[in-house]
């Protein structure tokens, strides 16, 4: 019961933080991540708020899960609802920045918060977000690499979002190249007991390619984890 409550709290805090980081990126005006470029462009063309546009796209992506035979979890549904509400609520009170230094600080802070929030909500292990599930489902069904599938999806939504009027800028570049390393750093500095609560510490990582790790030499001391036979 205690563990379930902690995972639920990690999920909720992560999703709220993620939605808030989206709103801060929007207010900075320096560019959004690829999916949010699409959300903003769709909102601009339809008159929807960006939060509603996020939810509409999330539901549409969930429908694409059907032929992929993905199964949503409570975290999947919460992802659609909580992020949409949070981003619109945050945009309602966040002021427009007046100077470039403030805008840059908001952009950098938003990317950092996004990374921490990602560790929390995905690590809760209660179901992937719609967009994450689309990527993993396509990888499973097509046999293509994660890198190729993710790049293809994000390049497509970025291009469409830009054509619809979404904001592309330095923030888009910073997010694209910074979010992965920041998530990795967050995992490294997060206490193990918190990772265990959120779910990261109980998931056995899978290698993307066999070349990413080297076999442990027979002369070295055996690893403490009996399930691990390679070192990265």
UniProtKB/TrEMBL annotation:
<feature type="region of interest" description="Disordered">
    <location>
        <begin position="211"/>
        <end position="232"/>
    </location>
</feature>
<protein>
    <recommendedName>
        <fullName>Integral membrane protein</fullName>
    </recommendedName>
</protein>
<keyword id="KW-0812">Transmembrane</keyword>
<feature type="transmembrane region" description="Helical">
    <location>
        <begin position="73"/>
        <end position="94"/>
    </location>
</feature>
<feature type="transmembrane region" description="Helical">
    <location>
        <begin position="100"/>
        <end position="122"/>
    </location>
</feature>
<feature type="transmembrane region" description="Helical">
    <location>
        <begin position="159"/>
        <end position="183"/>
    </location>
</feature>
<dbReference type="InterPro" id="IPR038750">
    <property type="entry name" value="YczE/YyaS-like"/>
</dbReference>
<keyword id="KW-0472">Membrane</keyword>
<feature type="transmembrane region" description="Helical">
    <location>
        <begin position="47"/>
        <end position="66"/>
    </location>
</feature>
<dbReference type="Pfam" id="PF19700">
    <property type="entry name" value="DUF6198"/>
</dbReference>
<keyword id="KW-1133">Transmembrane helix</keyword>
């Amino acid at each position: 019961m205690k563990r379930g409550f902690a995972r639920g709290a990690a999920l909720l805090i992560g999703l709220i933080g993620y939605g808030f980081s989206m709103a801060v990126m929007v207010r900075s005006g320096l560019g959004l991540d690829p999916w949010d470029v699409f959300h903003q462009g769709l909102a601009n063309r339809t008159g929807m708020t960006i939060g509603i546009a996020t939810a509409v796209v999330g539901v549409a992506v969930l429908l694409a899960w059907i032929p992929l035979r993905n199964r949503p979890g409570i975290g999947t549904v919460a992802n659609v609802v909580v992020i949409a509400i949070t981003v619109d609520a945050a945009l309602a009170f966040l002021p427009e920045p007046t100077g470039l230094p403030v805008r840059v600080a908001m952009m950098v802070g938003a990317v950092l918060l996004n990374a921490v929030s990602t560790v929390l909500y995905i690590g809760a292990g209660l179901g992937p977000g719609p967009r994450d599930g689309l990527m993993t489902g396509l990888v499973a069904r097509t046999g293509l690499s994660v890198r190729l599938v993710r790049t293809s999806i994000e390049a497509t939504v970025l291009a469409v979002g830009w054509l619809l009027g979404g904001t592309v800028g330095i923030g888009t570049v910073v997010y694209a190249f910074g979010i992965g390393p920041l998530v990795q750093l967050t995992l490294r500095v997060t206490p193990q007991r918190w990772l265990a609560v959120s779910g990261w510490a109980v998931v056995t990582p899978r290698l993307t390619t066999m070349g990413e790790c080297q076999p442990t030499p027979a002369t070295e001391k055996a690893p403490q984890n009996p399930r691990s036979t390679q070192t990265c």
